[in-house]
Structures are given as C-alpha cells and as structure tokens.
Amino acid sequence: MTDARDGRHRLAEALTRVVAHEGIAGVSVRAVASEAGVSAGTVQHYFSTRAEMIRYAMEWTSAQVEQRLAGVPRWGDVREWTREILLGLLPLDADRHREYAVWLAFVAQAATDPSLADLNRQTSTKLRELYSRIVRARRGLPIQAGGAVPADPTVDADVLLLQSVMDGLALQLVDLEWEEAAKVGPELLDRYLTLVVDRPTEPEST
Amino acid sequence: MTDARDGRHRLAEALTRVVAHEGIAGVSVRAVASEAGVSAGTVQHYFSTRAEMIRYAMEWTSAQVEQRLAGVPRWGDVREWTREILLGLLPLDADRHREYAVWLAFVAQAATDPSLADLNRQTSTKLRELYSRIVRARRGLPIQAGGAVPADPTVDADVLLLQSVMDGLALQLVDLEWEEAAKVGPELLDRYLTLVVDRPTEPEST
DNA sequence: TAGTTACTAATACGACTGTAAGATGAATCC
DNA sequence: GGATTCATCTTACAGTCGTATTAGTAACTA
C-alpha cells in the first residue's frame, strides 16, 4: 500500500538534490530519473506530470522539517527548548543549509505557481502557530488549545515579528558559509529573544 | 554611446516582466524578445548569452531600487525620513510587490549561479550600510564617514537584526495581497523600530 | 493456472531551447 | 561618395524538453 509512497519519496529526495545542484530550472523528468538511478518511465509512473512531481517534492520537504521539529523534547526549561526549536529552523549546519536553499527555490517558484503558493501558505501558517506557542510559552501566558482564547493583539504582532526575524535570519545566513552562520546565527537570535520576545508585557503606551 | 545601454535596459525591463508572469524558468531568449517586441536576433545582439542577460537584468533591478531610494529626502525629522526609506523597501504597493517577487526569483537562482550570488552579496552589503546609517541616525550616534570609527558591536548586531526583519517582512508581505500588506506592514515595522532600534543604548547586562 | 495489477523500461513525437551565421537597411565617419 | 559600424531580422542546427505509447517483468489473486 505504501509502496507507491516509498517510490515517490525516493524521487522527491532525488529532486531536492537536483534543485540543490542545478536550481529549480535544472529539474527535468530525465534529470530526476538519472539522479534517482531509474528510467524516465519510472518517474512518469509515479508522477504523471512534472508540475505534480515538483509539488510533491515541496510537500515532502515541508513534512521533513515538521517531522524533525516534532522530535525536539518540549519539557524542562522553557527558554531552553523553545530556543532549540528556533535554532533547528535556521540553516546552521551543512544539511539544513542545503535544505533551506532548496526550500527557498520552491518559495520563489510559488510566486508563479498557484499550487505551490497554496502549499507555501499552509506551511507558513503552521509555522506561525508554532511561533505563537513559543511566544506565549516564554511569556508564561496560557497556550490556547482552541481558538476560544481572546486574542491579544500585542502577542499576535510579536508572533508576526518573530516569524519575520526567523525568515530574514535564514535568508541572510544562507548566504554565509555555514560555519560562520553557526557562529553569528545563535547570537542574533538570542539578542532578539531577550530584546523582544522575553520583554515583560507592558500595556501599550499610547 | 548609450544606445547600447538603452537597448539593454529595454530588454532587462522586458525580462523582469517575463519573470513576474512565468517565473525565472520562463525566461528564454525568444520569450524576452517577444515581450520586448523585437526578434530573438536583437536580444542576441545585446547579450551574447542567456546567463549574461539574466545577470544584467538582476543588476538593473538592483540599480532601480537604489535609484528610487536616493530620491528620498534625508532632512527634517530623523524618525520620519528613515521610516520612509524603510517603507520604500517593502512590497506595500502593486509595483513594489511585483518588483520584490522578481528580486526573490533572482536571489533563489543565485544559490546555483555564482555570478548572481556575487551580485546578491554586493546588494546585501549596500543595504546593510544603509541600515547602519539608519540605526545610528535614529539613536543620535555619529555617522561614520570612513571605517575609522571604532565599531560598536551592539550597533552592528542591531543592524543585522534590522536587515533580518526587513528581509523577513518583505518575504511575508509578498504572500499577501498588497492592500493587506499596506495595512499590516507599516504597523509591524513601527513596532519593531520602537522596540529595538529606538531603544536607548544601555550597556550589556550580560 | 490464468488473470490482474504494480512497476520499470524503451521509444517516439512535436515543441521549444541556446546559439551561430548571414542578410538587410540605416546611420556615421573620413 | 565610399566604407564602416550598428541595430535588427531571418534562418538553421543540434539538443533537450514534457509527455504519450507500448512492452516487458514481477508479484499477487482468484
């Protein structure tokens, strides 16, 4: 039953390698087939169209990240595990450097492909919910289970800001060698967390 | 003397339109020629190779932004004109929305094209210098002319953070309809400026 | 055992690709 | 005026592209 999925998984993995080396423009049915060590006919068997193949690979990449984040333990010191989650989203080692570069290629392609744009929005929303939980956790606020808790506009704004910083940090770090990114990335993140996220919730002054 | 440049300029403009509609994968010599209303041979006359054409178009796009920013008056209230410059870098209207989407496509392509990566780094460096001047201006610090002024690591970190926030904001706003981006963008930027950039420079508390 | 399904491969086709090579006309220069 | 340069176009060639078709093999099913 999952044979098909395994096959698609293998091809998605190969596709990301092609994107990493040649960019998304280098993704062709034949290139992916060759990278995966199969014939073009096999690729066609799993994906009837090139667009479907790319879409699936983007979905798969997103799921990979999600799965990795799910493995981070969420007990003990709040500052500790939230920090670890955030660091896990930045391109601080060679693997995640490659992963983020590939993701960025997908996001850029999403600007002209509605199907990819949808997926991008979904992923972005999931991440925003994660950031929301992190901001609330670090401020000792109750984590809402449903959407019933009255929204705090201050928290919502800071969640969007955190997402911006994370996106922008990743975008800057991906231009660096990962050794340097590993040095400066955590410093900048920690600075932002202490300056904004962990700031005591004061009432709005005007 | 500038005839050639005018020709190249016209083609670069056409190329960005192609990228906006079809993505960078849709950029071919013939597509750009057709978009510019000339023959493919004309394109070849100005750019001997496709890569050179893309490279020039990216350069041209960067120069367009630079030129637009140079037009912002830099006198009067510091908070006012620095804010205007920053807002001018975000995709808050239809034109700059398109412009940023195109730029993002170039940046993603830069991951596998060394020549574009160079240009991306140069642009990023120029922007960082701009952000540095803005942070110093808003804090009433002297703006260094040369590099002789002793570097303040706190300021440098905040410059990198500001660049991250600007990059990340743009990345998020480009997914929104520009009408909504125009609403939420300035709010988030103002919040960040008051929380971090305009924060009184206190010594590090370790 | 016969039949059906999942998988892999090979081949073919028309469209599009980047690029090279000439041809034409207009403008510029000596 | 003759020569030269420049902008533009057309044509041509050798690839690669996505995709449809067909065929073969292995495995499960009844």
Describe the structure concisely.
Two copies of one chain form a homodimer. The first copy, chain A, has 206 residues and is mostly helical.
Would you give an account of this structure?
2 copies of one chain form a homodimer. By secondary structure, the first copy, chain A, is mainly alpha-helical. Chain A contains 9 helices and no strands. Chain A has helices spanning 3-22, 29-36, 40-46, 50-70, 78-88, 94-110, 114-138, 153-173, 178-197. In chain A, α4 (50-70) runs parallel beside α7 (114-138). The radius of gyration of chain A is 19 Å and the shape is elongated. The A-B interface holds A 20-26, 101, 104-105, 107-109, 111-113, 117, 120-121, 124, 157-158, 160-161, 163-169, 171-172, 174-175, 184, 187-188, 191-192, 195-196, 199 and B 20-26, 101, 104-105, 107-109, 111-113, 117, 120-121, 124, 157-158, 160-161, 163-169, 171-172, 174-175, 184, 187-188, 191-192, 195-196, 199. The first copy, chain A, binds a DNA duplex (30 and 30 nucleotides) through α1 and α3.
